Amino acid sequence: MSVETIAQNIRAEIGKVISGQDGAIEQTLVAVLANGHVLLEGVPGVAKTLMVRCLAHTLNMQYGRIQFTPDLMPSDVIGTSIFNPKTSEFELRKGPIFVNVLLADEINRTPPKTQAALLESMEERRVTIDGEPHRLPPPFLVFATQNPLDFEGTYPLPEAQLDRFLLKVIIDYPGDKAELQVLRRHHEGFKPQSLEDAGIQAVVSRGELEQMQQDVQQITVEDKVFNYIYEIVKATRNSNDVLVGASPRAGIALLNCSKAIAALRGREFVIPDDVKELALPVLRHRVILRPEAEVEGLNVDRVLTSVINAQVVPR
User: Fold this and answer.
1) Is the separation of the CB atoms in 63 and 105 below 8 Å?
2) Which of 13, 124, 186, 272 is a Cys-bridge partner for 58, taking CB atoms 3.0 to 4.6 Å apart?
3) pLDDT digit string (tens) for 213-227?
4) In sequence order, which residues have a C-beta less than 8 Å from that of residue 20 and are 6 or more positions away?
5) What does the radius of gyration of the chain's CA atoms come to, in whole angstroms?
6) What is the rounded distance in angstroms from the CA atom of residue 85 to the CA atom of residue 88?
7) Beta partners for 83?
8) Considering all CA atoms of the chain, what is the largest pairwise distance in Å, rounded to the nearest integer?
9) How far apart, in whole angstroms, are the C-alpha atoms of residue 223 and residue 273?
10) What is the pLDDT of residues 85-119, one digit of tens each?
11) How confident is residue 54, by pLDDT bands cut at 50, 70 and 90?
């Protein structure tokens, strides 16, 4: 089956539980196909955690969740070596990070030392415990959540870690019809604790997912699209409202995401509209505004939208 057909099956399964978040679901699928991590931001109660659980279930991947708290230690995430008095040897006790899909819930509630425990795993797909490297099971994807409103007792993610997230996806309130559907679904007995009872099934095997990711790599990209991606990234560095612009890694992320969404939509080539559509979720967490711009009431999305719209779209 094609990437488009399999993705439609995944959407259909997730749609049994999640309503009104089609854009966010598509962006998470983009990240899966591009083998990248996602930062999910939204107020409590908009199904961020449920969405990730459903995605892992439909992809038939091992899921794990870590609730990040101020007292969480790096060893609580990656694991540690425990001395066994019976054998007089140290034995590895793996942490909850050894899964395919890791939900890092409220990641900004833990101190930088513990946040940093994820850096190696997100970039290298491995962890180092007592000087010994340990590979994480492939594929390894991190979905981290944070609340945009609650700043008390939080630790903002450092720029280096933010840059490891392929996308920053904003989860907004569902529309009127979607939220009414949520109410009816719960009235009829839906319990988010049991996805099996909701009828959600795994529709992708490990081999099929690897083949989908390989198909994405084969998507055609013309020179004009490469130039368009570069011009958008470069423009963030030249904006008067931006203190730190997007890095070359941001351009690579935009390229990979554009190829993924092209495959999702049944095309074997990237069009400039793919790039323009994904530029905001790819870049919004990778640029830093000047203090003067924030004083004037500007936010990252508003500045980036202006920058993106100012670029000439190739035809």
Assistant:
1) no
2) 13
3) 999 999 999 999 999
4) 174, 175, 177, 178, 179, 181, 182
5) 20
6) 5
7) 90
8) 70
9) 15
10) 877 777 888 999 999 999 999 998 888 888 888 88
11) very high
